[in-house]
Design brief:
Layout (H helix, E strand, L loop, with lengths): L18 E4 L12 H7 L4 E4 L11 H14 L2 E6 L18 H17 L4 E3 L11 H21 L3 E5 L14 H15 L4 E6 H6 L4 H8 L3 E6 L15 H10 L6 E3 L24
Parallel strand pairs: 1-2, 1-8, 2-3, 3-4, 4-5, 5-6, 6-7, 7-8
Helix pairs in contact: 1-2, 3-4, 4-5
Length: 288
């Protein structure tokens, strides 16, 4: 962590967006079922999750009910949920992986029902890594087939489907490592379904680590952005610990027409999540 921390001193830009906390990475020092209450205690009213059951694509009803209860008891709404991502096993999603076809398809209705029951309006489908010995064209065809199914499932619960670009350093086998690549997939899904509910998940940390021009990305793809996630770069810690100018980025998002929430998807620099929100005034943390 840098010794000197830059504060987001002008809160005007931040005030245009509600903030949602990703409980798969923040408050990770606590058991999963304690995290919604911790987020509420910190002033947040909305949260998002990577797939929260590890490699379990079809968790038990008791597990699902316990997670629902943790959110409802805390008064926190789940706004976004990853479909089966297998991040716990080092994978980066399952939609394009032939060996995961059955697990992905079995997971889709489970994830959609869980998301709907907690008010989520976004499903995030990580594309999946390239598989050695499998033709990339075959994987891309399977991904489109599965993303079409996911877009229809999302539509059925009044949600959007998100497609995300990751960074090539941390995800060297993931094929969507630019905004343009992710947006191309978004456009293909929308063309195939006619629903128009596939959107680009604009994760500013991943794009910055890929060396992209963030203002140019915002300007070019604002009409396709369905959600924004942030962490500072370098380091993937809270704003003020790296080099990104969040005041400018928030203002650019607003000017480009983005009025949605901002997802906090960073690792707290001290290891204590509750201490990592000093950059964001408490009155701005709730999703309005």
């Amino acid at each position: 962590m840098k010794e000197e921390r830059r504060e987001v001193s002008d809160v005007t830009a931040a005030a245009q967006h509600g903030f949602t906390v990703n409980l798969s990475i923040l408050f990770g020092e606590l058991p999963l079922l304690e995290r919604p209450a911790a987020a509420a205690a910190a002033g947040f009213t909305a949260a998002e999750l990577w797939w929260p059951f590890g490699a379990e694509h079809d968790p038990s009803q008791a597990e699902l009910d316990a997670l629902r209860k943790a959110f409802t008891d805390a008064g926190v709404r789940l706004t976004g949920l990853n479909l089966l991502d297998d991040l716990s096993r080092g994978a980066r999603g399952t939609v394009s992986v032939p060996s995961e076809r059955d697990r992905f398809r079995a997971n889709l209705p489970v994830a959609a029902e869980l998301a709907a029951s907690l008010g989520a309006t976004a499903l995030n489908a990580l594309y999946g890594n390239r598989v050695e010995g499998v033709d990339p064209a075959e994987q891309d065809a399977l991904a489109l087939e599965h993303l079409v199914l996911a877009a229809r499932a999302a539509h059925g619960i009044g949600a959007i489907l998100l497609v995300e670009a990751l960074n090539k350093d941390e995800s060297p086998h993931y094929p969507l490592v630019s905004a343009a690549a992710a947006v191309e997939v978004v456009d293909n899904v929308n063309a195939a379904t006619g629903l128009g509910n596939a959107r680009f998940l604009c994760d500013l940390y991943h794009l910055a680590r890929n060396g992209e021009d963030l203002p140019a990305v915002i300007d070019a793809y604002a009409d396709r952005i369905g959600h924004v996630q942030i962490a500072d770069h370098p380091g993937r810690n809270e704003p003020g610990t790296g080099d990104l100018d969040f005041e400018d980025l928030f203002a650019r998002l607003t000017a480009a027409g983005y009025s949605g929430s901002i997802g906090l998807e960073y690792r707290p620099s001290t290891g204590v999540s509750a201490d990592s929100f000093g950059w964001l005034p408490r009155e701005l943390r709730a999703v309005r």
